Amino acid sequence: xxxxxxIADKMSERAVEVFRSHGIEVxxxxxxxxxxxxxxxxDYDGIAVRSSTTLKDKLLDAAxxxxxxxxxGIGVDNIDVATCSRRGTVVMNTPxxxxxxxxxxxxxxxxxxxxxxxxxxxxxxxxxxxxAKFMGMELTGKxxxxxxxxxxxxxxxxxxxxxxxxxxxxxxxxxxERASAMGVTKVDTVAELAAMVDVLTxxxxxxxxxxxxxxxxxxxxxxxxxxxxxCARGGIVDEDALYDACKSGHLRAAALDVFEQEPARENKxxxxxxxxxxxxxxxxxxxxxxxxxxxxxxxxxxxxLTGSIKNAVNVPSLxxxxxxxxxxxxxxxxALGKFVGQVMRPGYxxxxxxxxxxVSKLNRVPMINAMLQGLLSQSMDEVNAVNVQVLAKxxxxxxEEVFTETAEHFSSLMQLIVEGDDGWRCVSGTVxxxxxxxxxxxxxxxxxxTPKGRLLFIENKDEPGAIADIATxxxxxxxxxxxxxxxxxxxxxxxxxxxxxxxxxSADVISALESLKSVITxxxxxxxxx
Length: 530
Fold this sequence. Notes:
Blueprint: E1 4-7, H1 14-21, E2 25-28, H2 34-40, E3 46-49, H3 57-62, E4 68-71, H4 81-87, E5 90-92, H5 99-115, H6 117-125, E6 143-147, H7 151-162, E7 166-170, H8 176-182, E8 185-186, H9 190-196, E9 199-202, H10 216-221, E10 226-230, H11 239-247, E11 251-256, E12 275-277, H12 286-306, H13 320-343, E13 348-357, H14 364-376, H15 388-394, E14 398-404, E15 412-420, E16 423-432, E17 436-442, E18 445-449, E19 454-461, H16 466-476, E20 481-488, E21 494-501, H17 507-514, E22 519-526
Parallel strand pairs: 1-2, 1-3, 3-4, 4-5, 6-7, 6-9, 7-8, 9-10, 10-11, 11-12, 13-14
Antiparallel strand pairs: 13-15, 15-16, 16-17, 17-18, 19-21, 19-22, 20-21
Helix pairs in contact: 1-12, 5-7, 13-14
């Protein structure tokens, strides 16, 4: 029996053609009431949506036979991904179909805001001829700031360079080398970027770390007479603070395609003449809508007919046998990534993952993704085991995978090497007796430790009294030591210490350790953290 798919939202007719070309039955039924949707949801193997249909609660409960949900677009806010994951339902999106369209809208908003085109249009249409009133800002030679240099942000950077602006970027996930290749200059903080540019445009997702990212403090640091554009997500810009900045004239102009509350039928920002608006149309072009419709239909067809998974946003499926064999190695892989992610700041150029011995003969992709997810999840909220390689590629991170059938000294060895702005780090681990993971080397130093809980990773001068000073400082601070492992760097006067501790060290404890004459660096590592 052929799989059945329900297209629940308005979508290009090309999606119907693609499904049918693969022999899949498809019903195009957008615009149904919630009750009507609930009545038919259980009849389908797949549901394709855009943003109108919300697949949560009662509707998702009714979709008892659905194996795959496809979102023709990027955001999956209208889908309960956690529940889908628990139920084994694959959720897919189309992260590349509307990138150019959204980037072009942002650039259009920048030009329109700089030259007051919407306001001048309204004035002229009203029969006025107010040439003196609409004195614009020339963009050539100005500085543009781009927050987020992923799929969309990188295109915006390219287009702005074409308009002869100098482009500066805040994105902690791209390296200096990647920024140089893009022809932009990387900046360390949002505040620093805001203070130096004439135009600031936002291209990051709405997550806890980016909510109200542009607040009153950031707006105050922006140049007087500068322009702010948000075509990313509502909630990233504090709308109350933006109102004050635009009403006072501190900002020349702002342009919004997104709002904290949508649909935005009422908003106090609408009262200000120096802010222009569009109704969340970043992805709204004929080309983009056709692209995402075709892509989601192809992806869903592939999964329903062959089991292939592309652009899924929840964890991939594994057989019970694979999951059991991989379990101890998956935990170790995640721990290795988390360790490096907490002792090395973002800005990674290259990640090398080496699997040696028996572990190299298992299903490698889940382990590689678990290691990358552990690494990037320390500074990126939306990373998961499926999208992690895409996100790494977007950030210009080179991934090298090395597999060898034998491992020196161990039956299996996993190794993670990360190179970037912060230098170089290398950690290795193994699994003893098939179930006991161990960290066995850090930066060429041999030191065996169970990778779990809270650790202190300390680099110190290899000299008498160093260990005693560290232990005394922790004891005086009431921090109990569970394990203390040491390693020396051959031929160097540096040593490493890995210390298992029972409680979280305060900032004062870290400062006290850093002030010791023998201590070089101190990192608190929480291997339970995502």
